[in-house]
Every structure is written in structure tokens, then in C-alpha cells.
């Protein structure tokens, strides 16, 4: 526009017709550059294909299919997709009816369900004077599961006298101490097992269902107090440790129980291998510390041979908050292991983490309460943390 005005003024002063022609060409290019990008993004469809389940840290193959449904040529198309990781792909030309598949590899850096975002189609063709953007809803969701670390024998997990994977065997309903779920009341059910919150909410009598269990049992509790960061956060590492220990214990015949929060209440469930992964993938910070959860767990861990507490080294998880809970659990289950997930080496700000002196005091106090303490640093495999007892019980 500036060049067209300058040439028009100069052409008027010197009476040079060719300057008027150049000014008109510049003005025409400006108008075309403002109008044509609107046309470039019309009639274009984008579809997304991706696996439904992946693990955190995996390289995921994501395919974007771009189709031109219009009757005209489309050019200089950029597809921006935030799915799993911000990605831009470029299509130079797209003939009428043409379809192209753009295959990308992205890292699943964030745990949990992904894929609610649409894609943004943009173009500044032909002269890059203006850019037109259009948001398109794209199907395709993925559940990013916690990363699984390979573990050998664990010092707090005894090998059971069976070769069956405990997580892969379906739990049997019975009169055991383990909570299996909630179902509708049937004639003959004991009224002592009525789950009153669910009964009030659903308008029908609901009862707790229990599992008949014949294997040794390990309970896993994950601290969900808070979290920071966008990828491989302290809570991500805690969930990875929980699922890795759970699978390793199940491979040795142990019955694994996960402490979860259902409808606002703490429950000890037998999730199965797939359920264990799904439950830990869905965990989000809820302000509930291990200490608060342990209070609600009193009497709920009957029959457990051992308990694993997985907690990041937040400043709020000091010895005054955690040690009494560990002492109570040790009295109830007999064997308690504590995995301290180092938050400072995973990007957490120093003011949110326990200082070195506070961490040392916490480790010593936990050992004094009867727990075996392990410290997982951010730059080492999990198996090395379990091979090195920070403070033995």
C-alpha cells in the first residue's frame, strides 16, 4: 500500500504512465492478498488418526489426512495440531478432490487423556499479505499411560508360591476383606455392607462387594497433593513408579491393591493390570496428601502384607505430616516401604521442595517409624533407587 501511494504521487508529479501501472499492480496484489487466503482455507477437511493407548515417553505415529472438497486449487496450507505435541505440517498445493496423508512422529510427553483439541488450518497464499485461520474439529483421542520401568526382585515384595500373574487373574467375589466394588442390593446381602453415600445418590440400595483373596497382598498409595510442570512431572514419576512396582509384584504372584478416590471417598481396589494403568493415567492433583489419605485408610488395609507409599518430596510432606501416618500403617500392615520421588530434580521450584536438611530428617524419621526408605532421583532408573536403601527400617 505504501509503495502504491508513493508511486502514484511520483507518477502524478512527473506525468509517467508506467508508474501508474506499477502502482495499480501493487494495489491489486494487496487486494488479492487480503481476499484469497479466505478462499484457500474453505472446503478443506482434516482428519486425525492415532493409537488409542500409548505410554508416556513413547514416539507416537500420528497421521493427518488433508482433503480438498472444493472445486478450486488450494495452496500454501499449514495445519497446526496441538495433539500430544505442537506440530505444524505444510501442504504446498492441493488439487480439487485431492487427498494427502501427512505422517508425523510425536512424543507422548503428558500423562492422561489427550486429543480434545482441534486443528488450526491457515494460509497466507498467494502473496503473504494476510493470513486466514480456520479451526477444524478433528477426531482422535489417546490415553497416555504411565511409563513402565523394568524392575527385578523388590526387597519389600516376597515371591508368592504361585507362577500365576496376580493382576491377570480375575478377582473372585467372596467374603474376604478386600473391597472389589459397589453393586445393587440382592436378597441375602448383609445390611452391614450397604454403601450409604451411593444409596442416597442413586436412589437404590447399593452394597459393597468384597473379594476372596488367596495371595499375598501389596497396597500402593500415591500422593496426589500437588504437581508442577508440563512433562515428566513429579506426579508422573510417582505414577510410573506405582505401576512399575504393581506389575513387578503381580509377576511374582502378589495381589496388588491400589488406593483410589471414588465419589470423594478413599477405596482400596483390585484393578487388574489394565485397570491399574488406566487408574494411574487418570490421577490428577487433588490437594490430598498421603497423610490425609492414611487417616481415611484406618482399618481398610486388613490382610495386606505390605504397603508402598509413593510421594514426591514436597515441602508439605515433612516429617510432622507423614511420619504419624506411616507409623499407623506399619502397625496395621506390618511392612511399609516409602519411595521418595525427588521433586527438585524433576523441575519443581526450590521453594516447593523439602530442603536437604528436611529431607534427611524425614528419611531418618520414617525409618524410625518402621519404614524402609528409598530415594528416587530424576536422573536414574527406578531399579537403581530400589537397589539402594536410603535408610533401612
Summarize the helices and strands and which ones pair or pack.
Layout: H1 2-14, H2 17-40, E1 44-49, E2 53-55, E3 59-68, E4 74-81, E5 87-94, E6 99-107, E7 112-114, E8 119-123, E9 132-136, E10 142-145, E11 172-184, H3 196-202, E12 206-212, E13 217-222, H4 234-251, E14 255-262, E15 265-269, H5 272-282, H6 290-296, E16 306-312, H7 319-333, E17 335-341, H8 356-368, E18 371-376, H9 382-387, E19 389-391
Parallel strand pairs: 2-10, 13-14, 13-16, 16-17, 17-18
Antiparallel strand pairs: 1-3, 3-6, 4-5, 4-8, 7-10, 8-9, 11-12, 14-15, 18-19
Summarize the structure.
The chain is of the alpha/beta class.
CATH architecture of the largest domain: 3-Layer(aba) Sandwich
CATH structural class of the largest domain: Alpha Beta
CATH topology of the largest domain: the name is: Rossmann fold
Question: What value does the Rg take, in angstroms?
Answer: 30 Å
Number of domains: 4
Task: Estimate the strand proportion.
Answer: 25-35%
| Widest sheet, order of strands | 15-14-13-16-17-18-19
Q: Give the low-confidence spans.
A: 160-177
User: Strand count, sense and closure of the main sheet?
Assistant: 7 strands, mixed
Strand pairing plus helix content: what structural class? alpha/beta
Strand and helix order: HHEEEEEEEEEEEHEEHEEHHEHEHEHE
Total strands: 19
Distance between the termini: 78 Å
Q: Into which percent range does the helicity of residues fall?
A: 25-40%
Count of individual helical segments: 9
Amino acid at each position: 500500500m505504501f509503495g502504491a501511494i508513493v508511486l502514484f504521487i511520483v507518477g502524478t508529479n512527473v506525468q509517467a504512465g508506467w508508474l501508474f501501472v506499477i502502482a495499480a499492480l501493487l494495489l491489486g496484489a494487496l487486494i488479492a492478498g487480503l481476499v484469497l487466503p479466505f478462499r484457500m482455507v474453505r472446503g478443506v477437511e482434516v482428519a486425525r488418526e492415532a493409537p488409542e493407548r500409548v505410554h508416556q515417553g513413547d514416539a507416537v505415529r500420528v497421521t493427518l489426512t488433508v482433503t480438498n472438497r472444493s472445486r478450486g486449487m488450494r495452496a500454501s496450507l499449514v495445519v497446526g495440531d496441538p495433539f500430544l505435541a505442537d506440530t505444524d505440517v505444510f501442504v504446498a498445493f492441493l488439487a480439487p478432490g485431492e487427498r494427502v496423508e501427512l505422517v508425523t512422529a510425536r512424543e507422548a510427553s503428558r500423562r492422561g487423556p489427550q486429543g480434545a483439541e482441534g486443528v488450526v488450518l491457515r494460509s497466507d497464499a498467494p502473496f503473504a499479505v494476510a493470513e486466514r485461520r480456520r479451526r477444524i474439529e478433528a477426531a482422535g483421542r489417546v490415553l497416555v499411560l504411565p511409563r513402565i520401568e523394568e524392575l527385578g526382585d523388590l526387597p519389600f515384595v516376597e515371591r508368592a508360591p504361585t507362577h500365576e500373574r496376580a493382576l491377570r487373574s480375575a478377582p473372585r467375589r467372596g467374603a474376604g476383606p478386600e473391597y472389589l466394588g459397589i453393586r445393587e442390593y440382592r436378597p441375602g446381602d448383609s445390611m452391614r455392607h450397604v454403601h450409604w453415600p451411593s444409596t442416597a445418590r442413586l436412589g437404590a440400595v447399593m452394597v459393597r462387594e468384597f473379594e476372596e483373596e488367596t495371595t499375598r497382598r501389596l497396597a500402593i498409595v500415591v500422593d496426589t497433593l500437588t504437581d508442577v510442570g508440563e512433562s515428566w512431572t513429579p506426579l508422573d514419576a510417582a505414577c510410573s513408579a506405582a505401576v512399575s512396582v504393581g506389575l513387578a509384584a503381580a509377576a511374582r504372584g502378589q495381589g496388588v491393591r491400589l488406593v483410589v478416590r471414588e465419589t470423594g471417598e478413599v477405596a482400596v481396589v483390585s484393578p487388574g493390570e489394565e485397570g491399574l494403568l488406566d487408574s494411574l493415567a487418570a490421577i490428577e492433583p487433588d490437594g490430598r496428601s498421603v497423610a490425609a489419605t492414611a487417616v481415611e485408610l484406618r482399618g481398610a488395609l486388613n490382610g495386606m502384607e505390605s504397603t508402598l507409599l509413593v510421594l514426591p518430596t514436597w515441602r508439605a510432606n515433612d516429617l510432622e505430616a507423614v511420619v504419624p501416618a506411616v507409623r499407623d500403617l506399619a502397625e496395621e500392615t506390618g511392612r511399609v516401604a516409602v519411595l521418595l520421588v525427588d521433586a527438585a530434580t524433576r523441575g519443581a521450584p526450590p521453594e516447593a521442595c523439602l530442603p536437604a536438611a528436611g529431607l534427611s530428617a524425614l528419611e531418618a524419621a520414617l525409618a524410625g517409624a518402621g519404614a524402609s526408605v528409598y530415594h528416587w532421583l530424576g536422573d536414574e532408573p527406578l531399579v537403581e533407587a530400589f537397589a539402594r536403601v536410603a535408610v533401612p527400617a
